[in-house]
Amino acid sequence: QVQLQESGPGLVKPSQTLSLTCTVSGGSITTDDYYWSWIRRPPGKGLEWMAAITYSGNTYFNPSLKSRTSISRDTSRNQFMLQLSSVTPEDTAVYYCARANNLGVPAGDAFWGQGSQVTVSS
C-alpha cells in the first residue's frame, strides 16, 4: 500500500520561501498514473488544493496560487516537492501531500500523508 510522508520546516518567516518534501513508499511517482498533489488546510478553514504533478512530469496549479507556487520531483528518491514563495501569516496551515485520481481536492479514494504544520511568523 502506498504511503506518503511530508517533511519540512515547521516555522517560516514572512517573505521567505516555504519548501516541503513528500516521500513516497509503496508506489512510484514516475510510473503510477495519478495526480501527486499538495493540499493545505489553514486554521478554521477548508481544504485548499495547491498543485499537482503527474507520473510524466506534467504540472497543474491552483490559479489563485500559481504565481507563488512551484512543484517538482526527485525521481531518484521517489519524492515530490512544493515551494511557496513570498509567504505571509495567511499561509499558515497544515500542508498535506496526496496521491489522487483527480485534480483539485482529492476524492475519497486518495491516499494522504499525515500532514505537516507550517507556521509563518517572524
Largest sheet: 7 strands, mixed
| Uncertain runs | none
The number of helical segments is 0
Distance between the termini: 39 Å
Helicity range of the residues?
Answer: under 10%
The whole-number mean of residue pLDDT values reads: 96
Task: Work out the strand percent.
Answer: over 45%
Structural class: mainly beta
What are the main properties of this structure?
122 residues; 7-stranded mixed beta sheet; 4-stranded antiparallel beta sheet
Outline of this structure?
The protein has 122 residues and is mainly β.
Layout of helices and strands, plus pairs?
Layout (H helix, E strand, L loop, with lengths): L2 E5 L3 E2 L5 E8 L9 E7 L6 E6 L5 E3 L7 E6 L4 E6 L8 E8 L10 E2 L3 E5 L2
Parallel strand pairs: 2-11
Antiparallel strand pairs: 1-3, 3-8, 4-5, 4-9, 5-6, 7-8, 9-10, 9-11
Describe this structure in words.
By secondary structure, this protein is an all-beta fold. The chain is 0% helix and 48% strand. The chain has strands at 3-7, 11-12, 18-25, 35-41, 48-53, 59-61, 69-74, 79-84, 93-100, 111-112, 116-120. Strands 2, 4, 5, 6, 9, 10 and 11 form a seven-stranded mixed beta sheet that branches. Strands 1-3-8-7 form a four-stranded antiparallel beta sheet, with no helix packed on it. The relative contact order is 0.32. The model has no long low-confidence stretch (mean pLDDT 96).
